[in-house]
Specification:
This protein is an alpha+beta fold. It has two domains: 211 residues, Alpha-D-Glucose-1,6-Bisphosphate, Chain A, domain 3; 79 residues, 2-Layer Sandwich (TATA-Binding Protein), CATH 3.30.310.50. 35% of the residues lie in helices and 22% in strands. It has ten helices and 16 strands. The strands form three sheets. Strands 11, 12, 13, 14, 15 and 16 form a six-stranded antiparallel β-sheet that branches. Strands 2-1-3-4-5 form a five-stranded mixed β-sheet, with helices on both faces. Strands 7-6-8-9-10 form a five-stranded mixed β-sheet, sandwiched between helices. The chain starts with a helix and ends with a helix.
């Protein structure tokens, strides 16, 4: 048996009961196209011709334009959700039954068995997810951003798995590595079970997604990154986690500000108990960043 057949057989063995679930898949003209039709026969699949020029859209599902086709498909065909993979299929992301993007860190509780286990998450993860992991009997473990940190951390602490805001999800049962395919299988299984219980995907996610107002990750080209970060820390105060930039925590919310590992950006996330407070904090942080530009 060749490597691809062995890989397919492994993934097929992980498939849960997906009966009754209607979903779409966007392969982004990438590597997911090798498996999608065989893993999910009868499913509505788009952009499933391998093409390294990525003619349909960017192979990065974090780009909102890359998700437009999938969202339109879900709405037009009244599907229960849609899954989109990045170019090399080590990441997956989801749109709900309305075609709305589901922030990837919100999905961490769907991809691993929480109760009694340690679950890794990066410094950008919503407080809602961290709280939910604890409520479900798990132990959240914060790690720096990136697979170079997540994989060793998973092994070191003995975590069952976890994930990141960027749509990487890690599994102890997958050699401690990330897999967009395996994450999609787990997410679809939870969605199918929820549908059989009479819940839409957005209703399934509401206990996490509805807790706080979250800005998502915002990027800024800044000349004096360290000075901007220090000024934001001084202004915002709160308890500081410094493993990767600053995650500054207050009872009513938090701010993450860090330098990108891969691009020339300063990255900012703001989460608060209300949208109004979130917008106020964003405006104040952006004023500080502008002075450092």
């Amino acid at each position: 048996m060749g490597y691809l057949e062995r890989y397919l057989a492994f993934m097929q063995a992980q498939l849960p009961d997906l009966s009754g679930l209607r979903f779409g898949i966007d392969c982004s003209n990438g590597m997911a196209a090798l498996l999608a039709a065989r893993l999910f026969p009868g499913t509505r699949i788009i952009n499933d011709a391998l093409d390294g020029n990525f003619p349909a859209h960017s192979p990065n599902p974090l780009d909102p334009a890359a998700r437009e086709q999938l969202s339109a498909l879900v709405r037009a065909e009244k599907l229960d959700l849609g899954v989109i993979f990045d170019g090399d299929a080590d990441r997956c992301m989801v749109v709900d039954e309305q075609g709305a993007f589901v922030q990837p860190d919100y999905l961490i509780p769907l991809v691993v068995e929480i109760k009694g286990n340690k679950v890794i998450h990066d410094v950008r993860t919503s407080r809602a997810v961290i709280e939910y992991i604890r409520e479900q009997g798990g132990e959240p473990v914060m790690v720096p951003v990136g697979h170079a940190f997540a994989k060793p951390a998973l092994r070191k602490v003995g975590a069952i798995g976890g994930g990141e805001l960027a749509g990487h999800y890690y599994f102890r049962d997958f050699h401690g590595c990330d897999s967009g395919i395996l994450a999609a299988i787990r997410i679809l299984g939870k969605a199918a079970a929820a549908k059989r219980a009479g819940k839409t995907f957005s209703a399934l996610m509401a206990p996490i997604a509805g807790r706080y107002a979250n800005s998502g990750e915002r990027n800024y080209k800044v000349a004096l990154k360290d000075e901007a970060m220090a000024a934001i820390r001084q202004w915002f105060g709160g308890r500081a986690e410094t493993m990767d930039g600053y995650r500054l925590e207050k009872p009513e919310g938090w701010i993450s500000v860090r330098k990108s590992n891969t691009e020339p950006y300063l990255r900012l996330i703001v989460e608060a108990t209300s949208r109004e407070l979130m917008q106020t904090w964003i405006a104040q942080a952006e004023e500080i960043i502008a002075h450092a530009g």
